[in-house]
Amino acid sequence: MKKGTRMKEEHSSNKIKIFILFVIIVAIICAVIYVFINKKEQENVGYQDNGKGPTISYYNEKDIRTNVENGQVFTKYIKIVYDKGTAYIKKENTKDSKFEAYDGAELNDGTYTIRVDDEQAKVSSKRTFTIDTIPPTIKGIKNGGEYNSAKIIKFEDASDVGVARLTKINDDGSEGEEINLLNNDEFKRSNTYTVNKSGVYELKAEDKNGNAIMPIRFKVTI
Question: Among 16, 86, 127, 205, which residue's beta carbon has the most beta carbons within 10 A?
Fold first, then answer.
């Protein structure tokens, strides 16, 4: 075999080897990219609500995931759910408020901050949220009450009232005139409303989070 022919064959063989190596490298890079993208997609998929509590909310891939969002308000007692790490809970606006290990107990009314540290304690995630199940407190009247003079209805914390309607009940039991107390001048000035006409009335109210009182029906005779 001539020397020139042999060199051409070696050159062609080297080209094939380089091409095969290039294909292998591209395949490895594609595999790495696929795994990375698939992992991100899995991390960004949230849990579905199973009816036992709030849905787990997913943030970015570096964030620890919990079932509460910062600033969220719940109108029922809840348990904290988190996907990894160790959780610590602190009840705000209380004496000697500090973080303590969360034992999985159901939380009642109040404002809380939950902190979750990952296994290496390198990532910490905090959420502050509120549980409010308490409807407005009404003073001056009670359900079934009968009064022989004008009655003053007072809301203990009128600033948190979202709905307040007083309805006069007709003799046949149907609903008559309705007064939206939030638009009433007396209520705006003093957080009170004076019932100074005889009749049967029903008060319905709820706070801004939707916690409603049981309707209060009472009678005034003047």
Answer: 205
